[in-house]
Amino acid sequence: MFQWHWFNRSQHPLLRVLLTALGIVLVAGILVLGFFALIAFAFVGVVVAVVRALTRSHAPAASCVNDPSVIEGEYVIVRNDPAALKH
Q: What pTM value is reported for the model?
């Protein structure tokens, strides 16, 4: 059986009950605090998601998005003359 060797447990039964109750209250308090922290993070996440969704909906749309003949992308013009090849 696992035993704590770094502190001596009290032999008084009332003190043992009080320390056990204190431990249970501390664990319950930590769990409640963690629950409210989770709720706060979820609330902040929802607010950020809503703000981003609203700001993106008002962003100016590209004029060629609906044109199927336009291919969107980036390109680099590579020159093929001797002056560009010399460093």
A: 0.50
Burial 32-52 (b: 16+ CB within 10 A, else e): eeeeeeeeeeeeeeeeeeeee
If you count them, how many residues does the chain have? 87
Q: What are the backbone angles phi and psi of residue 7, rounded to the nearest 5°?
A: -150, 150
Report the phi/psi class of residue 2: left, alpha or beta, with left for phi > 0 and alpha for psi in -120 to 50.
beta
Walk along the chain (87 residues) and give the pLDDT tens digit of each residue.
666 666 677 788 899 899 999 999 999 999 999 999 999 999 999 999 999 988 886 655 555 567 778 777 888 887 777 776 665
- Centroid of chain to Cα 56: 21
